[in-house]
Backbone:
């Protein structure tokens, strides 16, 4: 049997230390790449928000706490709605919509109250997707499923009818510049911002652009 010499022992120690160095370097590179990817998703440019209103960000998340899902059960199909800003002067008197069947009107459902725009509001928020309008007494409490565009206020309440856009799980794709509940959104034209409506707030999960909290001055650059 071969006996280990001092040279053999020294070589073994050197090999173990080399492996340890390689492992440390690999872990360090992994951590740095993870942090870099995280910072590219959500990058706050100011720290002026108070603890009660500051959006939460971490692991690539941004949650805007003032835009929350309405009560009731989450929706299973998680519909996507496109929200865009339209000049008041260019807004048509009525949008053309497609009727996609009838529903039993939910008389026990109490939607939020629509807040009309004022003359000083030069832009209107227009949603595009599925919504419902009542058929009135003529249709014995029935309603219509409609697909198309409709106006919503700055709290995302439709001017008429109801929608699933503020139920938990709904997805919003934002186009252009929008102001929703004192958050100013600027969305990239090629990669629009996407948010999901949740009970904890408006959850960012895709697209490029920025959000400015008008109340606090907090600015977040997203997807950069």
Residues:
């Amino acid at each position: 049997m071969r006996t280990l010499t001092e040279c053999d022992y020294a070589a073994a120690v050197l090999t173990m230390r080399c492996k340890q160095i390689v492992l440390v370097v690999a872990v360090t590179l992994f951590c740095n790449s993870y942090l870099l990817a995280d910072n590219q998703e959500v990058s706050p440019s100011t720290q002026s928000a108070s603890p009660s209103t500051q959006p939460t960000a971490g692991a690539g998340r941004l949650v805007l706490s003032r835009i929350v899902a309405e009560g009731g059960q989450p929706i299973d199909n998680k519909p996507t709605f496109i929200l865009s800003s339209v000049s008041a002067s260019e807004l048509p008197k009525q949008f053309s919509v497609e009727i996609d069947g009838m529903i039993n009107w939910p008389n026990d459902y109490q939607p939020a109250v629509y807040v009309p725009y004022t003359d000083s509001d030069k832009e209107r928020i227009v949603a595009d997707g599925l919504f419902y309008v009542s058929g009135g007494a003529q249709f014995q409490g029935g309603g219509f499923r409609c697909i198309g565009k409709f106006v919503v206020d700055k709290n995302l309440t439709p001017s008429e009818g109801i929608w699933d856009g503020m139920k938990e799980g709904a997805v919003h794709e934002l186009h252009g510049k929008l102001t929703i509940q004192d958050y100013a959104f600027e969305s990239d034209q090629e990669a629009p911002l996407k948010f999901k409506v949740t009970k904890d707030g408006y959850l960012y999960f895709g697209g490029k652009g920025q959000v400015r909290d008008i109340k606090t001055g907090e600015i977040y650059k997203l997807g950069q």
